[in-house]
Amino acid sequence: MTRVKIRFQCNNCGAISPKWTGQCPECQAWNSLTETAIEKESKSDRIKLHQQTPAQVKTLDQIEPGEQVRTLSGISELDRVLGGGIVGGSVILIGGDPGIGKSTLLLQMFAALNEKSGLKTLYISGEESIEQIGMRARRLDLQLEKLRTLTENHLEQIFSIIAVEKPQIMVIDSIQTVYTELLQSAPGSVAQIRECAAQLVRFAKLTNTTVILVGHVTKEGTLAGPRVLEHMVDTVLYFEGDTGGRYRVIRAVKNRFGAVNELGVFAMTDRGLREVNNPSAIFLSRHEGNVAGSVVMVTREGTRPLLVEVQALVDNAHGHQPKRVTVGLEQNRLAMLLAVMHRHSGIITYDQDIFINVVGGVRISETGADLPILLAILSSLKDQPLPRDLVVFGEVGLAGEVRPIQGGAERLNEAVKHGFKQAIIPKANLPKQAIEGLKITAVSRLAEVMDNIPVA
Ligand code: TYD
Ligand code: MG
């Protein structure tokens, strides 16, 4: 029989102490001990372990490709992010801000699954009462009779119920509300989250049940909770977008069964989340007239090109430290780009506050946004609007060179489809054949762009 012992492990160096202390006795880090459950093997366990036949070393050609059963969730944008459906026995973490639509999406998914796949589903909520879930399902106009629901947050109870129920796919909404009696710490603490998730992952693998964990992430995305789970689970999906806005984007940041950075796009309506199957132009804000500081870029997230508007506001700084604020982009990248622009084009911004925003709450992680950011900054600095039919993309290097990015032709074609007539792109991305209706300016150095900025 295995016995469980409670120990305190240092997050910094991994040392284990029998008691909690404010400072780790090993590495002297402060406040780094968290409660952990450690399984102690009894003597008979150890003997049994030794009697088992050990695993054998094999070359990979000896391995038969196992049957990987995928089930379509019935929501195609979600299947796209998952890499073509839900893999049986996998553990999926869905993170996002509170109120962004995680519960709504999963409820809708279960309704779709019940209708199409015949898999046995179970929605376990530790957050909402069964009446609340029922009311929501009714408002979403879902098939109520097949939505099997349980409200429980005691992990041991959950296990005893699912041992009888035997669902093939289940949701735990949310991992922050469940707790195991093994640990004394409060639900939602790192120790509880880690231990509960570990037990659920083990359960999923042993019984080939698909487990979907919901995790709340704070605005900065740094909450220790769900982040500590990323390495345990097979797939990590994050919701992006402002809670107040209309669109919701789901991104796969880790996927053992598919590509990452694939996006699924939804619109939040009064009848729940609706799929947006052709999202390429939804993130453009439509200005009445020409405005300075705005530029449209074509980004490619996953396999789809997406037109997004990058906005910059440059304003006189008051104070010693000029502000550098970015929403949807990496802040360090902005600092680097400003240095490149100063060094290679002589444009001074140290006396200016700079704010950058990607419209619609999308997050852009690719370097193709470099050139658009710089053009938006320059446009705002000079108060000179750029043409409305212009698209831009390109990476900018430290030497002031403009480097190509992947999928140039595809991005240009998407832009033309939406009526854009001019493009500034890296020289190496110039398509072999001219694209009808598009005037392309290909550049290889930042200075070339800065000297000939088109005006509206
Ligand atoms: P919810 O799924 O409860 O968020 P999470 O589980 O991520 O915390 O989403 C709730 C939000 O979505 C809430 O603010 C209201 C909004 N909403 C709609 O706009 N339309 C709807 O049909 C539903 C069900 C929710
Ligand atoms: Mg919820």
Provide an overview of this structure.
- The protein has 456 residues and is α/β, with parallel strands linked by helices.
- The chain folds into three domains: 44 residues, no CATH class; 208 residues, Rossmann fold, CATH 3.40.50; 170 residues, Ribosomal Protein S5, domain 2 (2-Layer Sandwich), CATH 3.30.230.10.
- 26% of the residues lie in helices and 27% in strands.
- A nine-stranded mixed β-sheet has the order 8-7-9-10-6-11-12-13-14. A seven-stranded mixed β-sheet has the order 17-18-16-15-19-22-23.
- The longest helix is centred in the middle third of the chain and has 18 residues.
- The structure holds thymidine-5'-diphosphate and magnesium ion.
- Thymidine-5'-diphosphate binds next to helix 3 and helix 4.
> Order of strands across the biggest sheet?
8-7-9-10-6-11-12-13-14
Mean pLDDT, all residues: 88
**General form:** globular
> What separation lies between the terminal Cα atoms?
76 Å
